Automatic annotation (TrEMBL):
Protein name, per record: Cation-transporting ATPase
GO biological process, alphabetically ordered: intracellular potassium ion homeostasis; intracellular sodium ion homeostasis; potassium ion import across plasma membrane; proton transmembrane transport; sodium ion export across plasma membrane
Cell membrane as UniProt keyword: yes
Lineage: Bacteria, Bacillati, Bacillota, Bacilli, Lactobacillales
Transmembrane feature ranges: 52-75, 81-100, 245-264, 270-290, 686-710, 716-738, 759-784, 790-808, 828-847, 859-879
Subcellular localization: Cell membrane
Originating species: Tetragenococcus halophilus subsp. halophilus
Main location: membrane
Keyword line: ATP-binding, Cell membrane, Membrane, Nucleotide-binding, Translocase, Transmembrane, Transmembrane helix
Family: Belongs to the cation transport ATPase (P-type) (TC 3.A.3) family. Type IIA subfamily.
Topology term for the membrane: Multi-pass membrane protein
Domain Cation-transporting P-type ATPase N-terminal: 3-77
PROSITE patterns: ATPASE_E1_E2
Domain of life: Bacteria
Gene Ontology cellular-component terms listed: plasma membrane
Length: 886
């Protein structure tokens, strides 16, 4: 079945049972509105707060803590029960409130469906609510109108639209009712169609509505957003694995303790209680709180650096980024057409500096800045471009410069402003426009006639090939101009020729002006580009040096895409794949491999972008997808990290993304990746710290049971260590500065996980050494005449001191943690001091003695505690240095 852009106007009228002059009857409209629904985008599905809460309750750690609390309650240990329930609430509520953030939805797509539209119904032209448009309606679209539905053009005059939000292309697209394609073509090449969410830049057209609501291209994109499901982040997966691993270890230890106790005729209830203590010791109750605070700090740091991260897990995922798949238009480039180079006469060459529509810039010749006012020919040429023009450049509320009208015209207006020429001022100085032929896709040029002081000048601006064919110049001159044109085109520039007839004495009707063009003289050529962002090259280089692949994705022509990719330094820029090639290969077994090896993707559709992201993820890449248009939204939503532009980005793109760049700089992404890597390094440090501390408690208890000794530590002591003593130092590790090599190494692979042999060995060895030291201290003190409370207080205090000292073995990846930077981390200094003070309160404050069952320690016991803690810290440090830091 043929698509709407492949059929004739008469077939379209017949298909939608409408009338090109009368439109639909109100009766037909009512019937179709009932059948098709309103012309609106449906909201995405939301997760209820109750479901979010259940997701946090339905967790193995929560069930273990709940079981421990129930058993403690049944054993009449109220203080222990309350402490375990507090730990449980901390674990559940931290996760719940983290996830209870603004739900991503496609509500902003509603803003793409505008409130009113001009329509012909019952033979009358009327303005209606855009939500009431139905298929078959005949719309009248004029310059400046926002388009509220997809439709087939049935007649037009000099009609063009900006479709960059959907296609990613910067230039206005010429539209024509008669441009029918027999073959399948991408959306950007469907020149007899208009699309919801785009805008009219020139002329007018009558259009038959073909799709409304969710069936429009914008609606389909909304559907794609709704279909994608949230995935666990790399960090979630790793912490889940590590938690399960340590819980399994605790379960094995608990079973072993239970068996040992039963063999030695210990009471069954006592052994169950000991097993519960082991389970509580194993569970990292502080982990959710520390993770949330660490990621929140990273979120704030990124915000200060112009990157707004919308979810906490995304902060860490950024650090794992191995591919940045970047939209070209508006991300790597300005999405603003700019006059980049000029040629006057045959060979006089000039360069123009500046950014997009910003009127600040200069003109250079041979690399040297010149004063344009001193060059009459140059000023005359630029003046012609300003006069033969209808565009305006305005500054919006955010201080950004925007074009009103055709982007190419906007480039010439901006060029004029850079040398002090503006159309309004010229007209105030006596230039009077007395005739005009607007630009049209048929002519491919615009003509104006200006009169000043009794003299008339005809100016024509348009396609180089057309103007060259009309010009009255020698073949040698034309050959030289053709060479200049090819030079500009080779750089990916759009070439505009400007010509004139001085002292014009012809007629002023369109036919009379056209018949006079055989005496045209070409003044010069303008090379117009959508320029790369000023920092793009440096940022791409930084990313690639950090081992991150940069891939460019665009709706532009392959040649233009390749030239831009080369200019900004993308490696392997000549490796290009088009949307058609993707469609042909998507089902092949090696498709993911082809995508991974491609550097530039051109002429792609929104579906292609999603296919690219999915293929890269299949290749085990962690993908950051950047973009600013409606067409980018599905891929932004599907990527591990979706990054939207904050200034030029559409609301749809922002809603679909995980991160918004408030300065639109590609370099900000690289800065965010660096921060993500720092965060992951610091997460590894506090995970290593917390789990090693939990291992200490498990080892000490397990060995004591095996040797048939009393409990070396009480359950409340374990909870105090896990929730009071360890949490502040663990949080302070999130303030550790970047390691020297953070951006010199490649991205971490999925194999470089937290649960690898290297990392687990360090945790287990540290826990075993400190745990055996705790047992040794306990065994030595058992030979004295001390109460069980005093012995448990000594072991409890040793664990607090040794665990605080263990920070020096985790805060630096490749060295011992006492150096100058230690004193720069004020949070760490403060947290250690706080933890020591809290431990002293637990040991010496009478009310804490009653609550925790502790007794004040004597000086000689402190000497033993400090000695054992120093010895265990040195042993762990030497092991790490010998085994991992040759």
């Amino acid at each position: 079945m043929k698509e709407d852009y492949q059929i004739s106007i008469e077939e379209t009228i017949e298909k939608f049972d409408t009338d090109r002059k009368e439109g639909l009857t109100q009766e037909t409209v009512d019937k179709r509105l009932e059948e098709n629904g309103r012309n609106e985008i449906q909201e995405g599905k939301k997760t209820s707060p109750w479901k979010l809460l259940w997701n946090n309750i339905n967790d193995l750690i929560v069930y273990l803590l709940l079981a421990a609390a129930v058993i403690s309650f049944l054993m009449d240990d109220l203080a222990e029960t309350i402490a375990i329930l507090l730990a449980l609430l901390l674990a559940v509520l931290t996760g719940f409130f983290t996830e209870l953030q603004a739900q991503k939805s496609v509500e902003s797509l509603q803003s793409m469906i505008y409130t009113t539209i001009t329509v012909i119904r019952d033979g009358k032209t009327q303005t209606i609510d855009a939500g009431n448009i139905v298929p078959g309606d005949v719309l009248l679209l004029r310059e400046g109108d926002a388009i509220a539905a997809d439709g087939r053009i049935i007649s037009s005059n000099n009609f063009a639209c900006i479709e960059s939000a959907l296609t990613g292309e910067s230039e206005a697209v010429e539209k024509s009712a008669d441009d029918i394609s027999e073959e399948e073509v991408p959306l950007g090449d469907q020149q007899n169609m208009v699309f919801s969410g785009t805008a009219v830049t020139r002329g007018y057209a009558y259009v038959i509505v073909t799709e409304t609501g969710m069936e429009t291209e914008v609606g389909k994109i909304s559907g794609m957003l709704d279909e994608t499901s949230d995935e666990k982040t790399p960090l979630d997966i790793e912490l889940d694995k590590l938690s399960k691993a340590i819980i399994v270890a605790a379960f094995i230890a608990g079973v072993a303790v239970l068996v040992a106790g039963l063999i030695t005729d210990k009471p069954f209830v006592e052994m169950i209680h000991i097993a519960i203590i082991l389970a509580v010791a194993a569970i990292p109750e502080a982990m959710p709180a520390v993770e949330t605070i660490t990621l929140s700090k990273g979120m704030n740091t990124m915000a200060q650096r112009k990157a707004l991260v919308k979810s906490l897990p995304a902060v860490e995922t950024l650090g794992a980024t191995s591919v940045i798949a970047s939209d070209k238009t508006g991300t790597l480039t300005e999405n603003q057409m700019m006059a980049s180079e000029l040629v006057l006469g045959e060979k006089t060459h000039y360069e123009v500096t500046g950014e997009g529509y910003d009127p600040h810039g200069s003109v250079k010749k041979d690399g040297e800045e010149i004063v344009p006012e001193n060059n009459q020919d140059l000023m005359q040429f630029i003046q012609s471009g300003v006069l033969c023009n209808t565009a305006h450049i305005d500054q919006n509320e955010d201080g950004q410069y925007e074009v009103v009208g055709d982007p190419t015209d906007g480039a010439l207006v901006t060029l004029g402003k850079k040398v002090g020429l503006e159309r309004e001022e010229l007209e105030n100085k006596g230039f009077e426009k007395i005739a005009e032929v607007p630009f049209s896709s048929e002519n491919k040029y615009m003509i104006v006639v200006y009169e000043k002081d009794g003299k008339r000048q005809l100016i024509i601006k348009g396609s180089f090939d057309v103007i060259l064919g009309l010009a009255d110049q020698t073949q040698e001159t034309k050959d030289n101009l053709q060479q200049q044109n090819e030079m500009f085109a080779a750089k990916g520039q759009r070439v505009i020729a400007i010509a004139s007839i001085e002292n014009y004495d012809g007629g002023l009707t369109e036919e009379e002006m056209k018949s006079s063009l055989d005496s045209l003289k070409i003044q010069g050529l303008v090379g117009i580009i959508d320029p790369p962002r000023p920092d793009a090259y440096e940022s791409v280089e930084s990313a690639q040096n950090a081992g991150i692949k940069v891939k460019m994705i665009t709706g532009d022509h392959p040649k233009t895409a390749s030239i831009i990719a080369k200019d900004i330094g993308i490696a392997d820029y000549e490796k290009i794949t088009t949307g058609k090639e993707i469609d042909a290969q998507v089902d092949n077994e090696n498709f993911a491999e082809v995508v991974d090896e491609t550097a530039v993707f051109a002429r792609v559709s929104p579906e292609n972008k999603m296919q690219i992201v999915s293929a890269l993820k299949k290749e085990s890449e962690v993908v950051s997808m950047t973009g600013d248009g409606v067409n980018d939204a599905p891929a932004l939503n599907d990527a591990n990290i979706g990054v939207a532009m904050g200034i030029r980005g559409t609301e749809v793109a922002k809603e679909a993304s995980d991160m918004i760049l408030t300065d639109d700089r590609f370099g900000t992404i690289v800065d965010a990746v660096k921060e993500g890597r720092i965060i992951f390094d610091n997460i590894k440090k506090y995970v290593s710290f917390l789990f090693a501390c939990n291992m200490v408690e498990i080892i000490a208890i397990f060995v004591s049971v095996v040797f048939l000794l009393p409990m070396p530590i009480a359950p409340l002591h374990i909870l105090f260590l896990n929730l009071i003593i360890d949490i502040a130092p663990a949080m302070s590790l999130s303030f550790e500065p970047a390691e020297d090599n953070v951006m010199a190494r490649g991205p971490r692979s999925k194999k470089d996980s937290l649960v690898n042999r290297h990392f687990l060995t360090r945790i287990v060895f540290s826990g075993v050494i400190i745990g055996l030291s705790a047992f040794a201290l306990f065994w030595i003190l058992l030979n004295g005449n001390q109460s069980s409370e005093y012995l448990q207080t000594a072991v409890f205090t040793f664990m607090a001191v040794a665990q605080l000292m263990h920070i020096f073995n985790v805060r630096k990846t490749n060295s011992f943690g006492i150096d100058r930077s230690f004193f720069q981390n004020k949070a760490l200094l403060g947290s250690i001091a706080l933890s020591i003070a809290l431990q002293l309160v637990a040991v010496y404050a009478p009310f804490m003695n009653d609550l925790l069952g502790t007794e004040p320690l004597r000086f000689v016991t402190w000497l033993g505690i400090l000695g054992a803690a120093i010895i265990s810290t040195v042993i762990v440090g030497l092991f790490n240095k010998i085994k991992y830091h040759h």
